[in-house]
Design a protein that fits this description.
By secondary structure, this protein is an all-alpha fold. Helix content is 63%, strand content 0%. It has helices spanning 8-30, 65-87, 97-100, 106-124, 135-162, 171-203, 209-212.
Length: 214
């Protein structure tokens, strides 16, 4: 393994992305969602509403500041994810997509299986291997975080384009919203596991933060 675990662009990206994601999750939890209540008609699978489809008119629901921040920050995160995908096509240390998704390849799946089998008993005791001995699992977690972030961003963009403040949501938009919320739930679980692993590494003297700080 290279002495440089993560290239400078990846380390800078990680800090910015982590800040934006944690802020977004907090805003998403605390914000009020502007929504017109009402029953759906049979034809509401087709998205008829677009974000800001009209200036607030009769019967519209005012967007809250939290919701507007959530929209803007979501677009920023989407842009960051596009940048990360571009970085994944490079050979920078810690960037390549083959490292993020080892389970897509036979050798990667075998390496992941071997690492899990060799360390599972230690994990049960909350003991983690040194970072250099746990690269495959760690990078896989990063990959899943990126994957579910992409699902969250893609569905969030659809909601940005289709969420109505002047009419009940279509069935399609409600379905997209459910997928969006499910992706957020999985992402929150992954982030908790990721942060817990970092804390345990630090407590066990691995100084893992030195590998990722910008």
């Amino acid at each position: 393994m290279s002495d440089v675990a993560y290239a400078k662009p990846i380390r800078v990206f990680h800090s910015i992305f982590a800040f934006c994601m944690l802020t977004q999750l907090a805003v998403g939890t605390l914000m009020d969602v502007p929504e017109v209540e009402g029953e759906h008609e049979a034809s509401t699978w087709i998205t008829s509403a677009f974000a800001h489809e009209a200036e607030h008119g009769m019967g519209s629901v005012e967007e809250t500041l939290g919701f507007q921040v959530h929209e803007i920050l979501g677009l920023v995160i989407g842009g960051l994810l596009v940048l990360r995908l571009l970085l994944a096509m490079t050979s920078l240390p810690g960037a390549n997509w083959r490292k993020l998704f080892p389970w897509l390849f036979a050798d990667g799946r075998q390496a992941l299986k071997d690492e899990v089998q060799s360390q599972l008993s230690s994990w049960m005791k909350f003991k983690l291997a040194a970072p250099k001995d746990g690269e495959v699992v760690a990078r896989s977690v990063h990959g899943f975080i990126l994957l579910f972030s992409l699902v969250m961003a893609a569905t969030g963009l659809q909601l940005y384009l289709g969420w109505s403040t002047i009419a009940p949501q279509t069935m399609w938009i409600e379905l997209v919203a459910e997928v969006h919320e499910a992706a957020v739930t999985v992402l929150e679980a992954l982030l908790v596991a990721h942060v817990l692993a970092v804390v345990l590494h630090q407590m066990q003297g691995h100084n893992i933060l030195a590998r990722i700080k910008p």
